[in-house]
Write a structure and sequence with these properties.
Oligomer: single chain
Largest sheet: none
Strand content: under 5%
Helix content: over 70%
Protein name: Transposase
Order of helices and strands: H
Shape: rod-shaped
Number of strands: 0
Number of domains: 1
Organism: Nitrospirillum iridis
Length: 32
Amino acid sequence: MDIVMEGTMTTAYLVAIDLTKRHFKVCAMDFY
């Protein structure tokens, strides 16, 4: 695998996790 591609995939993965966490925080605030 290309190093640049691997870095992009890792960044995208971390961003996805960050957005998911934020999304769940907002949902939790709305829920409670």
